[in-house]
Structures
1.
Amino acid sequence: GVSASPLIKKLGVTKMQVYGADHSPWVQAVLLGLHDKKHAYTLTTVPPLALLFKSGVMMPAAKTSDTPWLLESADILQQIGFGEVSRQDMEAINHSWRGVLHRTDRAFRFFNGFSRIRDPSSSITTRLLHHFLRSFVSFYMFLLIRTLVFFRGTGDPDNFGDQFLYFEHKLNEAGPFLGGASTSTADLMLFGIIQCHSSIPVPPLKALQDDPRLNKIRTWIAAMQARFADYEHLYSSRFFHPSVKPAESATVTDRTVFWLGALTMFILFPVTVPLVAILAGKVKRPLHPLKN
């Protein structure tokens, strides 16, 4: 683990810098945690060069001006005041992300989803540059997922609802949250996964909506949406009640620039594919999307 003291001390006097796209469940978990704790932060959807050369496009990443980048969502959440997630809960959380590999079943839908991610920069020039460059991050993720599907398949369970039964049973004993009266690391990570499933709809979303065995899960989703009604990155609002403010989409201009970037990445295929391989090699953990 990472020592908590430096970052916690700095959080009271400076904003946290966060890198990541809100389609990632682990980025979502961190942003949800920061929102819940009312900690100030700045968000960028493009990795700073120093971070890119060190760890590739791995996300989330978070730091303050005087602390190193932290690269694990569980560590970051602990640093801002949430408890450690149990091994059993973590295994269930990783298991509940099955179905994510279907995000790339339709290439246009995948890239269109990423084009809609809003960049928070107040500078028009910076925002457009970020949208252009973020197309490479999307290209990287698309190739990574398609490679995993090619070699390993999608690993679909017989019933996507089964992977949420652990939490359904846990909510029978707790409530309204997995952490009891307040949100826990497990709540944030599982809700982050639901945001991921909702940002580009995949088969587990249907199970979450309709499986008659998951009534407690749907009640929990409603409680989480009510708690995070003013949160800026909520994708699940389109699929679950209560209907609250959904994530704001990027402007038409921003999306057009993103698509120009995506086209450039495909035209420069002989360059961008080796670059993807080089950056993937910088990741210090197994390249598997079921890891946070």
Note: Confidence is low (pLDDT under 50) at residues 1-6, 286-292.
2.
Amino acid sequence: MENFLKIIEDKLKKNIKIEKILVLDNSNKHKKHKFFDKDKFHIGLEIESNFLKTKNRIESQRIIMNILKEELKEKIHALEIIIK
């Protein structure tokens, strides 16, 4: 699982100029949710990026989601994005 979080971090760093990133597994917080799937992750991203700050919030999130599109199809159920 930690390996998956590292893959996400590396993939984002490879495609976006990022000053600092924190990738969190928030899956445990969602165990009681109706559509919880133990094989999919609830990921939290805290990203400091001057590049993303030049975009509006929706553009920034679209960029991130496009980079992680395969992971969103297969392994990520929910993605929370905070851009600083």
Note: The first strand starts at residue 20 and ends at 25.
3.
Amino acid sequence: MECNRESMQEIERLYSHYLKYPSISTDSRSIKQGDIFFALKGENFDGNEFVFKAIEQGASLVVCDNEQIIQRNNLLNERNNLLNQRKKIFLCEDSLLTLQNLASYHRKQLKTTIIGISGTNGKTTTKELIQAVLSQKYLTLATKGNFNNHIGVPLTLLSIPHTTEIAIVEMGANHVGEIGFLSNIAKPDMAILTNIGTAHIEGFGSKENIIKTKKELFEFVKNNQNEKSHIFVNADDEALREENFSKKTTYSLKTNADISAKACSENGYAQIIFKDCVITSNLVGIYNAYNILAALTIGLHFGVEIQKIKEAIENYIPSNNRSQILKTQTNTLILDCYNANPSSCSSAVEAFANMQANRKMVFMGAMKELGEVSQKEHENILSQIKSKNFERIVLVGKEYKAVAKDEVECFETSEEFKQFLLANPIENATILIKGSRSTKMEILKDVL
């Protein structure tokens, strides 16, 4: 991210205020005393409309880009005998661009080692495991939740204090070039790609474009080398294994690599065996073994003792409906409904099929943003589910209704299915619940 001289002076002026008030907000509803409020635009709102509300709630500064709204609201405030607060307004051409430039400027001032992480599946879980491991030895910070886009990455960077030794910054993408753009803001020293699949193919157009975009993270590290530069390569991923860079560490569950381990499962929970060390996680599904191995690999690179790594991973408890086992009064739920794409759904179904449990059922929500391959991918997952010996299969979403016909139970929405379950309760079952975030499959846990 490069600014012209005039813009840079503005960013430096803004940065001097940020150093006094380093808390950033983009939501006027949750302003805290001293926050800097960035008035961003969305499809259904314009943050500029809430500038004076933010000031009244205690914002130390508001960054906005619609002078007409500011002038109009300022007049209204004056008519109501409220204090003229224009000195707290930072007017710019583009609030989002200013946020990104401020984050980029802050990044340049940090001595923090930044690890960029992306991939189709498992990046958020891997990020949290890496933080758990590195926190055993270093002051660390990681992206909160999935704040991994053009707004979330700048907010993550601006949440990093100068005392942080290592930060793990997650980067997501659903269009060509997005990872390169985010890398230019975050300027990662190191990078890891969990894997490359076919998520968001509607936005990318092809698998080749997905590979090219994801690998922009590796390319940034290669093209901007420093003494910290390093990449961590999943040698079992066909699109990644040939990655050529002198400063790399490979890891594998299938072949010889710098860090090789064996994957297994203990009562449904992912487990790996590395040399004579057995690490058993609280993550359901053997496919999570790759996430564990990635965290182990990075921990070893940073000199964390193996027993400390084991302790960190085994103490990590998943949340936010990610590979999570929830025992209710009547059933055992495997909640993996934070997101869904063909590879993650296939892995989840396979892991569930191999799990020892009674009365196994699959409640599967539709996968989104698959474009022209949507019908084929939904047919593939349905075929896989039907090939297993599950007691019951229920599909949710118009995408599944189109391919399931009358062979399998289907509901248009999760809310419709929830109402059905209220009238027809299930007991003593083990149920895999998965689907894209927009299908809201997590609401089913309230009635199971």
Note: The first strand starts at residue 24 and ends at 25.
